[in-house]
Prior knowledge:
mainly beta, 8-stranded antiparallel β-barrel, two-stranded antiparallel ribbon, 9% helix
Amino acid sequence: MEKMKTKYLSHLFLSIFLIIISSNEIYAQGTNINRIEKSGFFVGLSIIPGQSQIVNDGIVSGNKLTSVKMGAFSGSVETGYFFSKLIGISSGIGFTSYKSQINLGTYQNTLSTIDSENETYDLRISGTGISETQNLSTISIPVCLNFNIPLNDKIGIFLQPGLSLSIPLGKNYKSSGTFTYKGYYLIDNVLLENLPDFGFPSNLNTSAEGKLEIKSLVFSIISLVGLEYRIQEKIGVSLGASYNKTLSNISKYSSPEKFQLSSDANQINSLMGGSTKASASSVGLRIGLRYYLK
């Protein structure tokens, strides 16, 4: 985690340094930047269609979990202030969604339990083709530095690095898989299987859904870069790329070593409960509109 933060900050400072150098060269050449050099307040909004991924790190029953990216959407409204021709700051409120499919090829587990007659037996559970769709949506409060590099009197390059504090709203999962349950009674040396009426079905197609256990506050890094075009002196439209990644473990599940994917027929717990760490990220195409106040 510390290495990732250090790497991000190093890239941020390097980007700022290069922007300052580039801007000084542009000003030295006498470029006409009357339309985009003014300081002052601004308001804006943006939409970001793209793709996201929720990664569940860890191994469940000896098998590594795999994650597949899925479509997602983000958007925000912002307000900010440019202190000079080059540097400003902004904040606002936004909506960010993450969605991913988590796959587990096979699952094997045995747990000791008691039947209705208080007899102890081993429940042997096996599963195949296990898939889970995880959804997470958040309300976010971003704080970003803003840098502009004017290219001419209408077009400029923008860069917005920053941090975001997010509060989860929707957090759910939907799981499916094929499971077989067998009961082994050690005292009688009897294995019960293919007895669905007694709780030991074979090749049972199962689906379930529920709520993910996510931390109440999530911190993320943000990076936005692209081009802005001034259609009027006070109005700019922009097109660029967006990157968002959580900084720490977003999972609130405890004791993954005690995780049980399923302990009864027609019941599946979230795969996130068996992971040691969960993180979320997204990339997208940012489309923005800003109004500059005098």
